[in-house]
Amino acid sequence: MSRLPLTRLFVSLSLLAGTAFAADPVTVAYQTGIDPTKVAQADGAYEKATGSKINWRKFESGSEVIAAIASGDVAIGNLGSSPLAAAASRGLPIQTFLIADEIGDAEALVVRNGSHIAKPQDLIGKKVAVPFVSTTHYSLLAALKHWKVDASKVKILNLRPSEIAAARQRGDIDAAYVWDPVLGKAKASGKVLVSSAQVAKWGAPTYDVWIVRNDFAAKNPDFLRKFSKVSLDAIARYRANPQGFIADSANLAKISRLTGAKAEDVQAGLKGNNFLLQKEQIAQLQQPFVQAVGKTAEFLKAQGKVEALQPDYRPYVTNRFVKTAN
């Protein structure tokens, strides 16, 4: 899929603010992040609960999800908190209505064997690949700031996960900050310098979330309530017995099919993130997540990734659909 410049995407999306979507079928953009809801997706649970036909479209990065929403083809999308913060800062007509996960070890900066990178300062002058305006991009910049490594002295390349995999195989890059399935492959021939779990402890947490266009939300609240319930039920099943869920080969196979990750990487990915139950989601979406989005946006502005900030990010976050999911 071709990628438009971000400014054009945001202008296009703003112009679509009054566009209405049909409740059936609904096109939903998802990514390859590993989480329990992929089992429900594979089982057709969302279609059964909502009574709607859902066209699932897989994307490689949050910027591509934004592009799809800007095109008018997608009403609901899965993306990271960093592209969300960038989109909200530009006033896009969207809301976050569900948290897929709090990202931990499932995203990491991996250096290639033979790259001669043993410590953070060794990244200076090296080629580090990351999808721009993604959670991994935000985590990379936050890590460099923590290490007091000047980001301008690191050759940071904007590559999608599939492009990272190819570049790594050719030896064109020295390191990459990425998620599965590429993360698992990178670990097989490299070492983790830092993961997003550690970066979160340094004060820069990241999340995977579900967003919806405001016009679709206004016309289809029941669809979003049922969509949220299916997701929360899948998370609750995992949280009730994580080891049993991970040991179930059928669950692993379904997630592998949707993400392209190997079974062992699916297991690691599930262990590497924190999945929030309904009460936790209600509390998080009420205020803490709003603050996290604001802090992310402030960081992106300081890095020159967004031009201006919103005075309040509350309009871009809602917990009303998870509240009524039962």
From TrEMBL:
One of its GO terms (biological process) is alkanesulfonate transmembrane transport. The keyword Methyltransferase does not apply. Its main location: periplasm. Keywords: Signal. Residues 25-242 form the Solute-binding protein family 3/N-terminal domain. Residues 1-22 form the signal peptide. It is found in: Periplasm. InterPro entries: Peri-bd_TauA, Solute-binding_3/MltF_N, SsuA/THI5. GO terms for cellular component: periplasmic space. The keyword Signal applies. SMART domains: PBPb (SM00062). Belongs to the bacterial solute-binding protein SsuA/TauA family. This is Taurine ABC transporter substrate-binding protein.
